[in-house]
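Why this split exists: single-chain examples teach little about how molecules sit against one another. For that reason, every record in the complexes split bundles all components of an assembly together and asks for one structure covering all of them. Below is a record exactly as it appears in the raw files.
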Amino acid sequence: MSYLPYGLAVWIFLVGLYGVASSRNFVHLVVSLTVTQSSTYVLLLAIGYVKHGTAPIFADVPQERTAVDPVVQALALTDIVVSVTVAALLLALAVQVQKRRNTVNPDELHELHG
Amino acid sequence: MTRRVRLALFGVSAGGLTALMLWAVSGLPAFGDYHHRYGILLNKVAVSERHATNVVTAIVFDYRGFDTLGEEFILFASVMGVALLLRDVREDAERPRDATHSDVLGLVGIGLAAALLVLGLYVVAHGPITPGGGFQGGIVLASAFVIVYLAGEYRAYRRLTPHPALDLVEGTGAGGYAVIGIASMLLGSAFLHNFGPFGMPGTLASAGSIALLNIAVALEVSAAFVLLFTEFLEELMDTRLETG
């Protein structure tokens, strides 16, 4: 039971990868990649959890309370921003592919065009 | 490679990857038993040292502030990349008026946009105190503008968010972060070192340069996301103009 959150992260990672590998549409592929990346949020936050810990925000709880690890939470915040920027760039590329090749299906882009 | 071969290859390698990941996970401390000194230490010292009651914000904008500088420029670079990819062939033609317009939708949208604007400013301002901060609040602020598009007209949205203003706000946000970092060097400490004044913990005027960096990031994030949305939207408008 105590390893369940880590297992969940592994499962989300694999589901996202399956989406990427089996994709028939670049937009679907980008969303699958975002799913893959979201497994890292689960992993980071799961590692940082401390039993009976509160959020690492001491606005209305005393400083003596046990809190969960704040460092992995800050890393997850960075992670989310990077994930969004990657998704935006890839979607812009998908728009360009649609314009130039008139398809968003990766299977139809076999050969290189000059 | 055909689809079937690719999926078969994925199946085999995913099996191996699963085994490796489960092996790696089994070496981690059990859920809830992780006690890393770095996190524990920061939880103990952040409030007394920096007068920031939100330790996560203190880490993002102070203890690991250099990390966030890089993160901010990743966002900046990717928005430039999207603009570069989508903006090149577009001509600034007069856009047609939207065919449909609903007064009820407009009214609800304006109310919602105003509420989101206030909420966004609240989340940004309270970043060092309660959950929130420049990144989260910046997204909420950007969504207020997107609501204007959803509820009203494309032209109203564009009038509210002219490109030069967006570019200026985004540049100010990204550059301002670096300037605040350099300012602390001029004051005789390390790059991005918090130079105070720290104020009373739990009040708006607290946490020293964390609050300033927080605002710089809020500017950068909100302008970046409105810009991203605008680029994709204009792409859509161009397609509509071409097809009918």
